[in-house]
Amino acid sequence: xxxxxxxxxxxxxxxxxxxxxxxxxxxxxxxxxxxxxxxxxxxxxxxxxxxxxxxxxxxxxxxxxxxxxxxxxxxxxxxxxxxxxxxxxxxxxxxxxxxxxxxxxxxxxxxxxxxxxxxxxxxxxxxxxxx
Length: 131
Hints:
Blueprint: E1 6-24, E2 27-48, E3 54-69, E4 85-94, E5 104-112, E6 128-130
Antiparallel strand pairs: 1-2, 2-3, 3-4, 4-5, 5-6
């Protein structure tokens, strides 16, 4: 990348929460407190400028989120609405010279992996890929 810049950011996390309000597995119209939930994972970002005016951002995250201790919900139950995998890719370009100097355009896409449905019934919803 020569004179241009590239940066990387990495994060590792291990979070424990107690007495978290969650959907009642016996009646989805109500909520109950779980004993303990854990969320562990990694995230990274890669940010670069390969040539002047062109910016690229790529990111990925992996999350393992589950009930770790409870008297009602089985231990190991995955948390609703928490995808295991997420990723994104974004790019933009800004014209550096001439009459259109400063004019730019950008685009991107993101991916959200399958998540447990936080509503009636059980199962998975489809993955999401958006532009």
